[in-house]
Design goal:
six-stranded mixed beta sheet, disordered N terminus
Length: 566
């Protein structure tokens, strides 16, 4: 469908703007990303000067801060507040009818008018205004120049409420400064969820005051396997170097506050009952065998799962109590993925527990454990979210599902009336190759080029419309086994995260990869200004050998996901 048709349909469906509108060529020329829902572009431009003042309706407590955050570093302007709206260069007005993240942005001879219902909408209007300004506005130091903004009238609102990026800091610890930069970048693309994957077999990364050994012991592994055994043939032994790091509660608070100022909610993940070997290494009584384990030094799935005891449950309730005090997020992620049942099958204790609880098998035991966490979080006014394996053995009552093993688990959960976040490997695993593996740094041996990300449709094709509201949105995954540095994370995340941001924000009707590419090209100049280490788009076709390898790997992945689903 062409933009124009999308636009006409949009006009029929939504509240219209007064003037006739045009979208395709104009938004391409301005290179707005993600592309707004509606836009018109009259002739002319408005210049912001050093004496540019700001008027905001009193309800917007954070608008001045947002404006200074986004526009002051490069312009050097302070945007003094004035009480008289007519005198201001930038006016922020209230319209309670708009959605919480929606905005209207008009730039004309009289200045810049932003209308929104809430601070988030103002923030996104300012992100758009930043894109309308010369690329120099992304400089973090003052630039002497003219700051002209083209005349525009934009009505915009996100398609989905959950627009996220995930970051695994368990496999490789990432410094606080980078975590903040990651949040800045996702906010620049109008994303609003940072899923912080804080605990893993290979490292526990968050200070828990009641259990200091989680970080004293669990945050450091003695060495790390090289390459990705099991997938690649690049098995080079171990590096012989300890790897560690964790975030103090003070630092966590700082990150959460930093994110909140950018209208990003930080969703913490505490893995349970699998991917918990670092916790078991810290407190062996949490394990099924009681044996002292190492913080895991290899990648892949650990068979060392948690012992399904009341003591383990209480331990995790205590951990989550500290986590809830740090993270205001309604959603708390408890993992739930890739928990092999081998140890429970062999453990007399686990078997007795299954009998005592009247459960049929190990899958139902997992489900029962997740239900305990669900009850606990719900009683504390929070909501549990977990990877789609939490559906094994029956989905707990209030759970939200993060669908990673394709779209089908999410579709199934939505039909059961559960909320879903789409995070399928096939479109959102940014740890996969972006081009032929002969030309790229080592990654997971699958292929997810930019075009494929752009083609992602979070609503499953066969999901009846009455369940669509359960698809809250989607997010990109950055698993860091192969990413040792922030630079490498950025290389894998961008520009794929740019494509994803448009999938999650913009109207699907107008989505067109060929039209996206020139906008992306201009947008990359903004990322250059921010010194983002993105992978240049293009040159991403597979060789014949690569195509054959992908067929084999995809078949292997299907078998693995199927097997893992049982
Ligand atoms: C996952 O990739 N194990 C959620």
């Amino acid at each position: 469908m062409s933009y124009r048709w999308a636009f006409i349909i949009g006009l029929l469906l939504g509240p219209g703007m007064s003037a006739p509108l045009a979208i395709a060529s104009d938004s391409a020329a301005l290179s707005l990303v993600p592309v707004p829902q509606r836009m018109e572009r009259p002739e002319g431009e408005f210049a912001l000067h050093l004496d540019a003042t700001l008027y905001t309706a009193p309800v917007f407590r954070h608008a001045p801060r947002s404006l200074r955050l986004l526009l002051s570093p490069a312009t050097g302007f302070t945007f003094e507040r004035v009480a008289d709206s007519a005198a201001a260069a930038i006016r922020v007005l209230h319209d309670g009818e708009l959605g919480p993240e929606a905005y209207v942005l008009r730039v004309g001879a009289g200045g810049v008018d932003i209308t929104a219902a809430a601070d988030a909408g103002v923030f996104y209007a300012l992100q758009t205004l930043r894109q309308l300004l010369p690329t120099d506005v992304y400089s973090q130091t003052p630039v002497e120049r003219q700051w002209a903004v083209p005349f525009v009238a934009i009505e915009d609102a996100p398609r989905f409420g959950w627009r996220g990026l995930h970051l695994d800091v368990g496999r490789h610890f990432m410094p606080v400064d980078f975590v903040k930069r990651y949040i800045d970048l996702l906010a620049a693309h109008k994303m609003n969820r940072f899923h912080w994957h804080l605990t893993e077999d290979q490292g526990w990364r968050i200070e828990i005051r009641q259990y200091p050994k989680l970080t004293e012991i669990g945050s450091v592994r003695a060495q790390t396997v090289q390459g990705f055994p099991g997938f690649s043939r690049k098995e080079l032994g171990y590096d012989g170097t300890p790897h560690g790091g964790f975030y103090t509660q003070e630092e966590v608070r700082e990150v959460v506050a930093y994110a909140a100022q950018r209208h990003v909610t930080v969703v913490p993940e505490i893995e349970f009952p699998g991917h918990a070997q670092a916790a078991i290494a810290s407190y062996p009584e949490l394990g099924n065998t009681g044996k002292q384990l190492k913080v895991k030094e290899e990648w892949g799935i650990s068979k060392n799962t948690l012992k399904p005891s009341d003591e383990t449950l209480q331990f995790y309730r205590n951990v989550l109590t500290e986590v809830m005090a740090l993270f205001p997020s309604e959603y708390i992620h408890i993992g739930g993925d890739e928990a092999p049942k081998d140890q429970w099958e062999e453990s007399p204790y686990a078997q007795q527990r299954i009998r005592e609880l009247g459960l049929a098998n190990e899958n139902e035991l997992q489900s029962w454990l997740i239900q305990q966490m669900d009850d606990f979080l719900s009683a504390n006014g929070r909501r549990l979210v977990g990877w789609d394996e939490i559906m094994q053995g029956g989905l707990s009552s209030n759970a939200t599902v993060m669908s990673w093993r394709g779209m089908a688990p999410g579709a199934k959960a939505a039909r059961q009336g559960h909320d879903v976040i789409m995070a399928p490997t096939t479109y959102t695993y940014f740890d996969y190759y972006q081009g032929d593996d002969s030309k790229e740094p080592t990654a997971l041996p699958f292929y997810l080029p930019l075009r494929e990300v752009y083609s992602f449709e979070p609503i499953p094709a066969k999901l009846p419309p009455e369940f669509h509201r359960h698809i809250l949105g989607g997010q990109g995954q950055l698993w860091t086994e192969m990413m040792k540095t922030p630079e490498h994370v950025e290389y894998m995340a961008y520009p794929r995260a740019v494509a994803l941001s448009e999938v999650l924000w913009s109207s699907p009707a107008g989505r067109n990869y060929e039209e996206f590419l020139p906008r992306l090209d201009a947008h990359l100049q903004r990322l250059d200004r921010l010194q983002v280490n993105y992978r240049p788009p293009g040159d991403d076709e597979l060789t014949l050998k690569g195509k054959i390898k992908q067929l084999l790997f995809k078949a292997a992945l299907r078998v693995y996901l199927w097997w893992n689903g049982h």
